[in-house]
Amino acid sequence: MNTSYIHLMLLALLLAVVALFCMLVGAAAGLLARIDGATYATALLRGAVAFAGSATLSLALLTFVLAVL
Predict the structure, then answer these.
(1) Minimal CA–CA distance to 58: which of 21, 29, 8, 24?
(2) Residue 66's pLDDT is what?
(3) Phi then psi dihedrals of residue 51, to 5 deg
(4) Under the phi-then-psi rule, with left for phi > 0, alpha for psi from -120 to 50, and beta for the rest, what region is 52?
(5) Cβ–Cβ < 8 Å for 36, 57
(6) How do the pLDDT tens digits run along the chain, 69 residues long?
(7) Which residues of 20-29 are buried (b: 16+ CB within 10 A; e: fewer)?
(8) Which residues contact 59 (CB under 8 A, 6 or more apart)?
(9) Between the N and C ends of the chain, which has fewer C-beta atoms within 10 Å?
(10) What is the helix (H) or strand (E) element at residue 51, kind and residue range?
(11) What is the pTM of this model?
(12) DSSP secondary structure, 29-44, as one string
């Protein structure tokens, strides 16, 4: 398998974008839970669940796209 540096840099950039997106989703979920009246622990847990879910879906989609290419 011949992988060029451009492909590796593109993969690193895509992973960074996915990580940023997942952090934003988790932070927004935690903030909305806190605004709704949840305790800090519950809001943190909801944010973590949202982060994990969005990371799972994003990485699955990225894997699918890279497999098709």
Answers:
(1) 21
(2) 82
(3) -60, -45
(4) alpha
(5) no
(6) 566 888 888 889 999 999 999 999 999 999 999 999 999 999 999 999 999 999 999 999 989 988 887
(7) eebeebbeeb
(8) 18
(9) N
(10) helix 40-68
(11) 0.84
(12) HHHHHHHTT--HHHHH
For the record, the structure tokens of 54 come out as 């969005």
| Per-residue pLDDT, 2 | 64
Question: Which amino acid type is present at position 39?
Answer: T
Nearest to 65 by CA among 21, 1, 57, 51: 57
The predicted structure's pLDDT at residue 7? 82
Structure-token pair, residue 69 = 């290419």
